[in-house]
Amino acid sequence: KEDWKTYRQKLRDITKDVSNPDDIIFPNEPS
Question: What angle do CA 17, 31, 22 make, to 5 degrees?
Fold first, then answer.
């Protein structure tokens, strides 16, 4: 599903963009 592809992409990008892991806000999992 497209939602899951976007979701996984966001999860990958999160770790690139955030220097402090405590600041990570996870995207909502697609239903």
Answer: 30
